[in-house]
Amino acid sequence: MSTTILVVEDEPAIQQLLSATLTRAGHDVIRADDGEHAMRLLNEALPDLVLLDWMLPGRSGIDIARRLRTEERTRAIPIIMLTARGDEQDKVSGLEVGADDYVTKPFSPRELIARIKAVLRRRAPHATDDPVELGGLRLDPATHRVTADDQPLGLGPTEFRLLCFLMHNPERVHSRAQLLDRVWGDHVFVEERTVDVHIRRLRSALEASGHDRLIQTVRGAGYRLSVDPGPQRGVG
Ligand code: CA
Question: What is the pTM of this model?
Fold first, then answer.
């Protein structure tokens, strides 16, 4: 599945090079020239990963990383810091504020892509092409196929993304706003009841094999995918 990466870099030539490298690797790229611009973009939609230059005009990359980690909504976004400095102390500071990895300029495109892949696999498995299996369901992003007890299921693109996210983040309750952010990438312009519509469609696609029971409604909180049927409390 395509992954959206926010590139925050003030030097146009490097920003262009990063963007071309990531696009060639199949990622969707959005770009910001400085921290304020990045925060505005993040306010609109959450990317799957932020590639963050250390030296930026105004607010530094390290400040932005710290702020992303402090706020509930942006806390889980994977961050890779990018910098011309190779020094050990900088690396430590970057990791201390919560960056997931560190790439030194000049970067090798292959290394950058490999590191992005490793960080996504660790921090945002729903944004990778890795297949996932749970409770008799198997979903393969690379081939866009879902099976329930080995029987193929037809899912619309949104239901597919939704199921992919839920399967990679099971047993946790996700609010409608969180699902809009993580699955739709948009919590501003899409209404929360859109989530309910697609959950309903997903359940109906899973109904024939009985897997609809995995998708649970948690009243007043949101939705959860659970392989543990548990008490029927709050399930509907
Ligand atoms: Ca810079």
Answer: 0.78
